[in-house]
Amino acid sequence: MKENIQKLRQMTGCGILDCKKALEATNGSLEEAAVWLRKQGIVKAAKKMDRDTTEGVIGVAKEGTWGALLKVASETDFVARNETFQGFVKDVLALVVKEKPATLDALAQLAMASGETVQEKTTHLSSVIGEPIKLMDLQVVSVDQGYVGSYIHNAYTDAMGTIGVLVGLHSESDPEALHLPGKHLSMHVAASKPTALTRDDLNAEDVSKERAFFLEDAQKAGKPEAAIAKIVDGRMRKFFSETVFLEQPFIMEPEKTVEAYVAALPGHVRITGFAMEKIK
């Protein structure tokens, strides 16, 4: 049976459970099983997965000091607002909280209440809805002690929208006291879109290229040699203030950096990481 399941998967592109059901329904005949899958609409759904998916939702799942962002894509905004689609995402988010998978591949292989894997259920949903549905990404943020703040932009429900953000806050204080700062810091990420937590987290090659560009630009402008170093350093500070989370002006109090805002919070708070997912 296992060998025929693999052969049928190669023939049709369908999931393991679907292929197993098809073979059982056709007494193990590969040809009849392939026809059975086509009649069920499962092969058609699998082929739809090749089409572009630029819409969808970002789901947020949280429990205590752990949180995850899940990106589920659809072909149209109409489907992203569909109750059946959002109900599926809600069920997957509940599974994410329960099992806490570390990767998207691990999530795809988890069994749902129906007995199907998450990936197989995704394929079936594509068949029912009539357009491709794809599991795109899973990001996890956690802290040993403290709170994981979150924010959902353009929310469809309290757990999904078009932008999702998580911010890990390590702290010795009561987690309840971090709810509002956590939300505000998450809103900041959605608005300011930092690419790294600290300078050290930036790609070293990208930083070198940026510095080289500023140096060449100053030299071409004919700036005095003695002033070039200061000019380049100034432009690099601006670059860091635009890309590094801790060095960005905090949107709620622009006179402070994010780092200064967090340092003033009670309980020795520090940001340990962040994640953002968005549609488009």
Structure commentary:
There is one protein chain. Among the domains are: 1-47, Helicase, Ruva Protein, domain 3, CATH 1.10.8.10; 55-179 and 271-278, Elongation factor Ts, dimerisation domain (Tetrahydropterin Synthase, Chain A, 2-Layer Sandwich), CATH 3.30.479. Helix content is 48%, strand content 22%. The chain is an alpha+beta fold and 280 residues long. The protein contains 12 helices and 9 strands. The strands form 3 sheets. It has a 4-stranded antiparallel sheet. Strand 1 and strand 2 (66-74) form a beta hairpin. The model has no long low-confidence stretch (mean pLDDT 91). It is elongated, with a radius of gyration of 24 Å.
Task: Supply Rg.
Answer: 24 Å
- CATH architecture annotation name of the domain at 55-179 and 271-278: 2-Layer Sandwich
Can you tell me the overall shape?
elongated
The residue fraction in helices comes out at 40-55%
**Fourth-tier CATH superfamily name of the domain at 55-179 and 271-278:** Elongation factor Ts, dimerisation domain
Q: Segments where pLDDT lies below 50 for 5+ residues?
A: none
Under CATH at level 1, the class of the domain at 55-179 and 271-278 stands as Alpha Beta
- The helix-strand sequence is HHHHEEHHHHEEEEHHHEEHE
By secondary-structure content and strand pairing, the structural class works out as alpha+beta
Proportion in β-strands: 15-25%
* Assembly state of the chains shown: single chain
Contiguous helical run count: 12
Strand order of the largest sheet: 3-2-1-5
Number of strands: 9
Looking at the structure, the CATH topology of the domain at 55-179 and 271-278 is Tetrahydropterin Synthase, Chain A
- Distance linking N and C termini: 42 Å
- Average pLDDT: 91
Biggest β-sheet description: 4 strands, antiparallel
